[in-house]
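Section 5.1 Outputs to date
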Amino acid sequence: MAVGTVNGRVVAISGSDDNAIRMWDLATGRPYGDGLTGPEKGAESIAIGHFGSRAIVVSGNWDGTIWTWSL
């Protein structure tokens, strides 16, 4: 799990056993945006940050890959 800011909202990013990566709006406790399709074997670690003005999520995965999403 990771916590960061997307479009001015504080969000948590979580991975789960169903290989999905989801964002949660911490002010409301509700899902924020669409879920991100994850790697087949799931995420081992997740980070959120900014690349220039874009929010990004990076995951290190059980299959040895690294995935990046622009939010």
